[in-house]
Amino acid sequence: MQDFLCIFRKKLITFLWVLYIIVFAFSSKTILAESTVIPNKAGQSEFVLFSAPSTIQDFLATHIKLPDKPFANDMAQRAFLRRTKTEIHELLATQGYFSPIVTFDTQIKNEIEIPVIAIDPGPLVHVESVQIEFQGAITQSDEQQQKKINKWRKAWPLKADAPFRSADWEEAKSVLLSQITYEKYAAASIVKSEAVVDRENAQVTLHIVIDSGPVFYFGELEITGLERYDVEMVENYRPFRTGDIYRKELMHMFQIALQGIPHFGNVSVNIYPNISKHKAVPVHVSVTETKTQRIAVGGGYSSNNGARVEVNFSNHDFLDRAWRFNTALRLEQKRQTFLTGVNTLPNQNNVYYSAGASMQRTDIEDLVTIRQRVDTARTYQTRNLLSQFSLNWQREEKRPDGAINQTVKALALDWRFRHHVVDDPVNIRRGSASEFRLGAGSEFIFSDQDFMRIYGRQQNWWPVGKRDVFYLRGEAGYTLAPSRFGIPQEYLFRAGGIQSVRGYDFMSIGVREGNAIVGGRVLATGTAEYTHWFMQNWGTAAFVDVGSAADSMKDMDLFLGYGAGVRWRSPAGPLALDLARGHKTGTLRVHFSMVVNF
């Protein structure tokens, strides 16, 4: 009996120890589960929890819909967990995790058993090797094209040892294909695309084959939507001719040119890359004509001329010839203008003609001018170049406060040349713009004075880092004449204000006559400006301006201005609000305007 009790006691002790170990293990497991569960940051649920590394927690919680009410029964819960496990495998594969381990556990919360989905994503797959092959006409191209191929291969982002993600893989292929179809090979396509995953070694081998197809050439235009206007009107705006090698950029330029004239609202330019027509692929142009007449009312403000109100009437089918007729009344605090004129459309040589008349009154720095003017011009203009010859006659009344009034008449012949190459016409980061003007009049031909005005301006932009821009501007002018008297103010020079020397009032630097500042025969100004864009559309700028205007070189007295400002990228271009100090006067001035680059 004693032996039986001894054996029973030993078995009971053993049983209690086993029970204790089981309870302890269960309790530890519950505590461990509680310590590794990360609260859901997105798609939160009180009925299912994720236990996963933070690197994937937000991603999974964003893409997996969790239940917002308790499961109806155990079968519904098991179905949800099976479905979720499959989704997790699919989602993690897109992020480069091809060997995840998904297990299920439970957690007691408020006396309710809640399922916990535990996820071990496994190793992140990296690229082992990349093979990019080409076939088609591109393999028979010249040395220049081979350099482009090498450049494309070098720019391929998913290089060896790079983390692999499906989104990066698809984007890389899309970018490469768009680069190839951008010029010559409009029908290029991906004929093979493989990403072979080695789960054991967490590596992927990439292989892509692109067939360029044949070289495409532009064919004839196929235009739809024209009712009032002739086909030649559209033809004259295209930057390519039949037989030119296809370039997507040229079609884009064509569309922008048509959208830039008031005759059309919606414009679409495209081709259908049919390989059978690659030697002369038709260019499809679809346009929607707008109303021919328009009245517009607008307003604005500039620290140069103050507040502005404008009324404009335009007719872009003048005399039923698609000419553009325009009449405008612009009232500013320092300047009031009435103008009217008509422009022809560019011909196939990018040449158009214009004629107009205007009346203007200005009151700036105690100088009142009243001018009547008529002019005509011939203009050659392309995307990057403008060359214009014009002839104008004007009569100007000059009324300086405290000095003698004068009436001036002049018939002047002008030539203007401008060339610019910039990355973005609205928000420039890199580029240059050059401008040169030459104007002359003679007292033998309806002018009160012999004169020749020479003017030049150079602007340059350089990118700094990822966002910043450094800008330099310089301008100089000289009017060859016996004196400034008898010459209209348009052919003389004053400085100060926006796009000149900030820190000084608009046109406040020049020659003093009585109490007024009038134009002199010499000009030189320059600007150095650094703009830091701390956000996509907001930036700050620091600048230094220097320059002067005088009646002769020996009278030049340089004015220095410096300061800082705020920049905002509006849809129409950057707006500038600057606070500048005039070094010579010590005064602070606020300058506000749309930044006019050229």
From TrEMBL:
Primary localisation category: membrane
UniProt keywords, alphabetically: Cell outer membrane, Membrane, Signal, Transmembrane, Transmembrane beta strand, Transmembrane helix
Location in the cell: Membrane
Membrane-spanning ranges: 12-32
Limits of the Bacterial surface antigen (D15) domain: 293-593
GO terms under cellular component: outer membrane
InterPro entries in alphabetical order: Bac_surfAg_D15 (IPR000184), D15-like (IPR039910)
Name the UniProt record assigns to this protein: Autotransporter secretion outer membrane protein TamA
